[in-house]
Amino acid sequence: MRRMAGIMAYRRTDGRVGIRNYVLVISMVSCSNSVAERIARATKTIPIVHEQGCTEFEHDHARTVLALTAAGRNPNVGAVLLVGLGCEQTDIEGVRKAIASAGKPVEAILIQKEGGSPQAEKRGIEIVQELKGICASQERVPCSVADLVVGVQCGGSDWTTALSANPVIGVMSDLVIENGGSVLMSEVAGFPGSEHIVASRAVSREVGLQVLDMISELRAEYIETYGQRIEEVNPTPGNKAGGITTLVEKSMGNIKKMGESKVQGVLKLGEEMPRPGLWVIDNRAQGPDPFNLTGLAMQGAVVTAFSSGRGSPVGNAVMPSIKLTGNPDTFRRLESITDFNAGVVIDGASIQETGANLYDLLLEVAGGKETKSEINGNFEYTIPREAARKSPEGGCRR
Amino acid sequence: MMEKKAIRIEADDNVAVVAQDTEPGDSLICSGGSLTAVDAVPAGHKIALTRIPRGAEIVKYAVTIGLASCDIEPGAHVHSHNVEDITDRLCNEYEREFRAGKR
């Protein structure tokens, strides 16, 4: 273990550790989005707005409530103001209590109760100024990598992603785990083809079965939706033109981000991580990159290493996103949105050494160094949506 | 002229990935050694580091990604024309054995 593990961070009263002290203004329903946004703009805090919160089916609404609650409970968040309309489906008091139980100040206002939008805005600004005062008095204390939950992700991939960037993230992941920390890997739609590798790294037989059951279910869902097996359409013609020959190879490029550590288990969104280590998050939402990134934040990740061959500005409302690219040309062109150049591997640097350098940057970011996503104000929060599953039991239907 | 490179991701791999478009006869630096391309290999595609006989495993990321469908010479382009995709077999066999308690 050649790397340092000490960081200065915020230890919350529930024991979890955050690396930021963000103040959030969360809208409960799309009807209160504009007021929430204006309060956040006036106070230089982070708004979370969305298109839901009312007349939703039970399955969808449960996801909305989970996502909004999880945002407030993320250890990077120091205090929260909830802004609702007053007659929406979202139970603002329920959300308030769930966030407060993580031991942080959380206030709630309703536009109908305050007497209208200007009144709610004025009151909201006053409350947020008080919350900011409370957060400003909190100090970073000595913590370690063992306290960190780190997400890994890729998006906007090119031929360098699987060659340089993702193996570099894998080295970083192994260092985080070796030092007692936690790594969250999702993007499970990319697992089929290498499930035998992931299952072979399971910490127990039970976990191996969890992995295999999840992938069997995914394969069956794919046939049900598209009428074809994953192998029939993968690798795609574009993949092949880029040099990927087989599905194992394509899939390995994705799971390389996990490193080589033992897999502790598969967690559904909202399921608490029972112990540190490497975990797979079963988030099957298909959509743009913020879907997956938000899923990681909902599971308590406080920072994510995100590789993009083509370049991506995406961040998250409750966690910094360290952007790296495996493509040296992309780094030169898009340095304003990219924190780390893993493209040095293409130019001859070793994957091990570059991964260790990424780990060092992770520690700097944990200690307070701002990422490009934060500097540029990329604070996306996109609730990952997925269809209700017809047969939650799943099982092997291959 | 810039030196051309091939990147071997794991020490056990018998293929590397070329970092630039490569022509037959080009010399490549790879993991401290050197290698001569015998085929045109586009950037991002695989090149054989050793002789891989027909039926032998193609190893990248330290795992089997397919089988050689013919004898492959060092420096040859490794892709669909000389690799059999056995993803199905690898996944199915593993799963069957795992569920039967053999793994």
Low-confidence stretches of chain B: none
Total E-strand runs of chain B = 9
Give the integer mean of the pLDDT values of chain A.
94
CATH structural architecture of chain B: Roll
Secondary-structure content class of chain B: mainly beta
Structure description:
The complex is a heterodimer of chains A (398) and B (103). Chain A has 398 residues and is of the alpha/beta class. Chain A is 40% helix and 17% strand. Chain A is built from 15 helices and 14 strands. In chain A, the strands form 3 sheets. A 7-stranded parallel beta sheet of chain A has the order 10-11-9-8-12-13-14, sandwiched between helices. In chain A, strand 13, helix 13 and strand 14 form a beta-alpha-beta unit. By secondary structure, chain B is mostly beta strands. Chain B has one domain: Archaeosine Trna-guanine Transglycosylase, Chain: A, domain 4 (Roll). Chain B contains 1 helix and 9 strands. In chain B, strands 4-3-1-2-5-8 form a 6-stranded mixed beta sheet, with no helix packed on it. In chain B, strand 1 and strand 2 form a beta hairpin. The chains are: A alpha/beta (398), B mainly beta (103). At the A-B interface, helix 6, helix 7, helix 8 and helix 11 of A face strand 7 and helix 1 of B.
Name some characteristics of this structure:
heterodimer; A: 398 residues; alpha/beta; globular; B: 103 residues; mainly beta; Archaeosine Trna-guanine Transglycosylase, Chain: A, domain 4; 6-stranded mixed β-sheet; 3-stranded antiparallel β-sheet; 1 helix; 13% helix
